[in-house]
From TrEMBL, chain A:
PANTHER family the UniProt entry points to: GLYCOLATE OXIDASE SUBUNIT GLCD (PTHR42934)
Oxidoreductase as UniProt keyword: yes
Keywords: FAD, Flavoprotein, Oxidoreductase
UniProt domain FAD-binding PCMH-type: residue ranges: 51-229
GO molecular-function terms, A-Z: FAD binding; oxidoreductase activity
The name this protein goes by in its record: FAD-binding protein
Pfam families the record matches: FAD-oxidase_C, FAD_binding_4
Gene3D superfamilies: 3.30.465.10, 3.30.70.2740, Vanillyl-alcohol Oxidase, Chain A, domain 4
Signal sequence, start to end: none
InterPro entries per the UniProt record, alphabetical: FAD-bd_oxidored_4_C, FAD-bd_PCMH, FAD-bd_PCMH-like_sf, FAD-bd_PCMH_sub2, FAD-linked_Oxase-like_C, FAD-linked_OxidoTrans_Type4, Oxid_FAD_bind_N, Vanillyl_alc_oxidase_C-sub2
TrEMBL record, chain B:
One function term, GO molecular function aspect: FAD binding
Domain called FAD-binding PCMH-type: residue spans: 1-182
InterPro entries the record matches: FAD-bd_PCMH, FAD-bd_PCMH-like_sf, FAD-bd_PCMH_sub2, FAD-linked_Oxase-like_C, Oxid_FAD_bind_N
Signal peptide range: none
Keyword list, A-Z: FAD, Flavoprotein
Species of the source: Hansschlegelia quercus
Name assigned to this protein: FAD-binding protein
Pfam families found in the cross-reference section: FAD_binding_4
Length: 484, 393
């Protein structure tokens, strides 16, 4: 049906389905094991909805100890596992397979401890990203990484994918805000890695686990860095005649020693769609816009925005509009944060996630237009400009398989172009199944083999989220080789 | 005296490693040699030096990025960045004053030891700024991880694994960092005469304000000098005046608050970064204890009279401890005090015999040690790279 293959399910495991469900039910009683087809359907896809696979079963442990027993049991039985947070992965990171058990963390969503003097919070990993900030907002603190899906996505998923967001230019991504985890191994051990001190002892396994796409084990608890909220924040909107001027302005702001909390970019098509949806006062006449947000006291914000405004003017900004009220600021961000949803109302799309050196921005935007024009597809560009993380939305029609195939090919070509100019395939969404086959564009065989060896150090039998990250053929060849 | 091999290029590094594998003869990895006293002493007959792999490869201020070969002096990178108004924000720790070594700290040594300074408390460690590496594994294979863009989740984050790995997973040949603009100016608020627990509580309170404190240290009183609780602010001149006033107000410090000018502030934080000026006699053994900041004073209290000197950086979360030398360098009480506070301790200065006998790095739980060993072996199956540097083999 669609372009990305999944391995054939193991008939031996399918045949043992009842036995495996009984085994899981002995560990996680009652509603914690989901076996009916109706209920399993809720887990058959994630936010890469073009791909669906019905899992063998779903298990929702309530405690770390249950999770440890589940992993040990399934590993002993040789059953593949797919860990799942909220299923918001755009890369198919949580896509099940027919012979795999989905292990969800949704029943572990408590705040365990808030420690303001040490600026940390300890949570169970099933809590939502926004739930973390909500738990400390009344104290004037927040958790910095803010992926667009933050209302739904879980900390477990954020750690798996090393999620970013709009504000990571200043505050970093998940790995920079993660101090410790409780981690369950495939052997069923419960391991504390890091804690609430800075710089954990020994080899940085915490850094390795963060962003491992759920392929090493299961994270059930996390200790996170929380930060005091800024005194205030204010976005400003600049319109530019074209993306060249906007791109040059981003480089000039950073080069001038100003690091805003966020710099967001939209092209003409994205401006129109977002404005229709959010009525944020985006400049429709502009060829590109930047949303720049700075933080501090009112006077500090004024001064920074004056400096940034002067730079924008010399780079040809045709309009500049500061949010004068909290409501105006919210409207500006509403347009940006609802961009993907607004786009979804008018068309199906695939969202690419390559990162490029920001100096190559005009060149890559021209390439994207060229690629999509040649395929007869429309594309809208919305992205985190400060860090070069692109999000071209390639529009297609779900009811037309040819247009999906074309969109997937165009998406691949865009990512190849990102790697060519010194960037990478994915800035924050992860590889999942979506970019699996492209890994050999960014990495050579030696590098991929080394990463697969690391995978095997945690998971000798390739049971944890096995069909992700690595090109399928390569990983199957690795398994054959290891068996020899 | 060991043989030192200093290859001119990556091919030379590969060859050296492959020879070591063939001979089953471990090699020590070295950059500028300024931190040779950190870690367990090397037993290797040969040393592979990266000091001839030098040069800045990329410096792009508008992209906040710099790449350099592993043997490049840190000072050269910092000078080139400063010329463009930027810096390595994590404030690389210079080990020379602590060890009394000479020579030039290199980018490779910095990465291998994850050597951050006082600003780490706000902006993160060296490992947080590190966004790309090239290295040659113990298989003699060149691999890259990360790249030159600051947002990158393509493949496993071997970049983070390399930082602080003390040369045990590969010989670094290139490193790429995210940079940040230099601050226009700086000042430090100093409150005198606070007891440890009061001073550290003030540091923690300051870190909970929105004023972006970039250094938070408490220096206990010594030799008739009163204790100093120090908070650094760096920013545009106009912001600083406001922030210093606002911070002083929120602190409600029991003592008077003095403001240091930029020059005095820079000198103070250089000393705090290098640690040695506050650690007394050069013959003392030195520990670094990492702990949640508010529990720092508990560690010190537990050690009591055993301490020759101590001070707190990172809001209280990094305790530098000096003790008179002894057979086990005080490992038992230091580790017990650190464990009680749910932290960990590293023996950063002691003679070779002591560092061979005592665990330099915090012993890990069995499960964690197994995972670390399994991961290390995927990079260096024979164990030729800095074998025994982190843990007794």
């Amino acid at each position: 049906m669609t372009g990305i293959a999944m391995p054939q399910p193991d008939p031996g495991i399918l045949a043992r389905r009842d036995e495996i469900i009984a085994g899981l039910s002995r560990i996680v009683p009652g509603e914690g094991v989901i076996s009916s087809e109706d209920e399993r359907r809720a887990f058959e896809t994630d936010a890469l909805t073009a791909y669906r696979r019905m899992p063998l079963a779903v298990v929702l442990p309530s405690t770390t100890e249950q999770a440890a027993e589940v992993l040990a049991y399934l590993a002993r039985e040789g059953v593949p596992m797919v860990p799942r947070g909220a299923g918001t992965s755009l890369a198919g990171g949580a896509l099940p397979q027919e012979d795999a058990v989905v292990i969800g963390v949704s029943k572990m969503a408590q705040v365990l401890d808030v420690d303001l003097p040490n600026r940390t919070i300890r949570v169970q990993s099933g809590i939502t990203n926004l739930g973390v900030s909500a738990a400390i907002a009344h104290e004037g603190f927040f958790y910095a990484p803010d992926p667009s899906s933050q209302l739904a996505c879980t900390i477990a998923g954020n750690i798996s994918m090393n999620s970013g967001g709009a504000h990571c230019l200043k505050y970093g991504v998940t790995t920079n805000n993660l101090l410790g985890v409780k981690f369950v191994t495939l052997q069923g051990e419960i391991v504390e890695i890091g804690g609430d001190a800075m710089d954990a002892a020994g080899l940085d396994l915490l850094g390795l686990i963060c962003g491992s796409e759920g392929q090493f084990g299961l994270v059930t608890e996390a200790t996170l860095r929380i930060l005091p909220m800024a005194e205030g924040a204010r976005p400003i909107l600049f319109g530019f005649p074209s993306s060249e001027e906007a791109g040059a302005c981003v480089a000039a702001v950073l080069g001038a020693g100003i690091v805003p909390v966020a710099i967001e970019f939209m092209d003409k098509i994205a401006i129109d769609i977002c404005e229709d949806f959010a009525h944020a006062g985006y400049p429709r006449e502009a060829g590109a816009l930047l949303i720049v947000e700075v933080e501090g006291s009112p006077a500090e914000i004024d001064e920074q925005l004056a400096r940034i405004g002067a730079i924008a003017e010399t780079h040809g900004a045709t309009s500049a509009r500061q949010a004068k009220t909290a409501a105006e600021a919210a409207a500006i961000w509403k347009g940006r944060k609802s961009a993907f949803g607004a786009m979804g109302r008018i068309s199906d799309y695939i969202c690419m996630d390559g990162t490029i050196p920001t100096g190559r921005l005009p060149e890559i935007l021209a390439r994207i237009t060229e690629i999509c024009d040649a395929a007869g597809l429309k594309v809208a560009n919305i992205f985190h400009a400060g860090d070069g993380n692109l999000h071209p939305l390639v529009l297609y029609d779900m009811n037309d398989p040819v247009s999906l195939a074309k969109a997937e090919i165009a998406g691949e070509d865009i990512l190849r172009a990102c790697v060519e100019v010194g960037g990478c395939l994915t800035g924050e969404h992860g590889v999942g199944i979506e970019k699996r086959e492209l890994m050999s564009v960014q990495f050579n065989a030696v590098e991929l083999a080394q990463m697969m060896r690391v995978k095997r150090a945690f998971d000798p039998d390739w049971l944890m989220n096995p069909s992700k990250v690595f090109p399928l053929g390569l990983r199957q060849a690795e398994t054959l080789q290891a068996a020899e | 005296m060991t043989d030192v091999i200093a290859p001119l290029d990556e091919l030379g590094v590969e060859t050296t490693i492959l020879e070591a594998v063939a001979d089953n003869a471990p090699i020590a990895i070295q950059g500028g040699g300024t931190r040779v006293g950190l870690g367990r002493p090397s037993q290797a007959a040969k040393t592979l030096s990266t000091k001839r792999l030098t040069g800045i490869i990329l410096l792009e201020p508008s992209e906040l990025v710099v790449s350099a070969r592993a043997g490049t002096p840190v000072a050269e990178v910092e000078a080139a960045l400063a010329e463009k108004g930027q810096r390595l924000a994590f404030e690389p720790f210079d080990a020379r004053p602590l060890y009394g070594t000479t020579g030039e700290p290199t980018i490779g040594g910095l990465v291998a030891t994850n050597a951050s300074g006082p600003r780490r408390v706000l902006v993160g460690a060296a490992r947080d700024a590190l966004i790309g590496v090239r290295m040659i594994t113990g298989r003699g294979e060149t691999i890259r991880s990360g790249g030159r863009v600051m947002k990158n989740v393509t493949g496993y984050d071997i970049v983070k694994l390399a930082a602080g790995s003390h040369g045990t997973i590969g010989v670094l040949t290139e490193a790429t960092f995210k940079t940040l603009p230099l601050a226009e100016t700086e000042t430090t608020l100093v409150v005198e005469g606070l007891a440890d627990e009061v001073g550290v509580a003030a540091l923690c309170a300051a870190m909970g304000t929105p004023f972006e404190v970039t250094g938070a240290a408490h220096l206990p009183g010594r030799d008739g000098q009163p204790a100093r609780t120090c908070l650094r602010l760096e920013n545009f001149e106009s912001h600083l005046r406001y922030r210093a006033g606002a911070l002083a107000k929120t602190l409600q410090a029991p003592g008077a608050v003095t403001l240091l000018d930029a020059e005095a502030s820079r000198a103070l934080w250089r000393d705090i970064r290098d640690a040695a000026p506050f650690l007394g006699d050069t013959g003392n053994v030195v520990w670094r204890v990492s702990v949640a900041p508010s529990r720092g004073p508990d560690v010190v209290a537990a050690l009591g009279d055993r301490l020759a000197a101590h001070f707190y950086d990172w809001s209280g979360g990094l305790i530098w401890i000096a003790m008179a030398p002894s057979d086990d360098a005080g490992a038992a009480p230091v580790r017990a005090a650190a464990a009680e506070a749910r932290g960990h301790a590293t023996l950063v200065r002691a003679d070779d015999a002591t560092r061979a006998a005592v665990d330099v790095f915090q012993p890990e739980s069995l499960a964690l040690a197994r995972l670390s060993r399994a991961v290390t072996e995927t990079f260096d199956p024979v164990g030729v790279l800095n074998a025994g540097r982190m843990h007794a083999s």
